[in-house]
Amino acid sequence: MAQSNPPFMSGVPELLLLRLLQQQEMYGYDLVRAIRRVTGEAISLGEGVIYPILHSLERNGSLKSKRKPVGGRTRVYYSLTRKGRDRLDQLQNDWRRIQGGITTALETPSNA
Hints:
The chain is α+β, with helices and mostly antiparallel strands. It has a single domain (10-106), classed as Orthogonal Bundle (Arc Repressor Mutant, subunit A). It is 55% helix and 16% strand. It has a 3-stranded antiparallel beta sheet with strand order 1-3-2. Helix 1 crosses helix 4 (82-107) and helix 2 (28-38) crosses helix 3 (47-59). The radius of gyration is 16 Å and the shape is elongated. The N and C termini lie far apart (36 Å).
């Protein structure tokens, strides 16, 4: 059973969304499923988390959206803009730096 997402996850949903949208345009529920899939079920974010982030990223110019009819319904597909690609680069660099620091701390003997 998946554990709820801990507080240190702040910023991770944005990073994951931008990374997935770098690969292809997607709609909201598709992103929810993709996050579970690409993280090996370690991270599960609901639509109530995803949609506000998507809307915020669209408002700040990191994403653009377009409506497409699918099976008699309309879905909103999101894709990255140049600003979104720049933001993804920044978040990836930050994540790698933090990950390296935590890895170092975890591997350092506790009596150091």
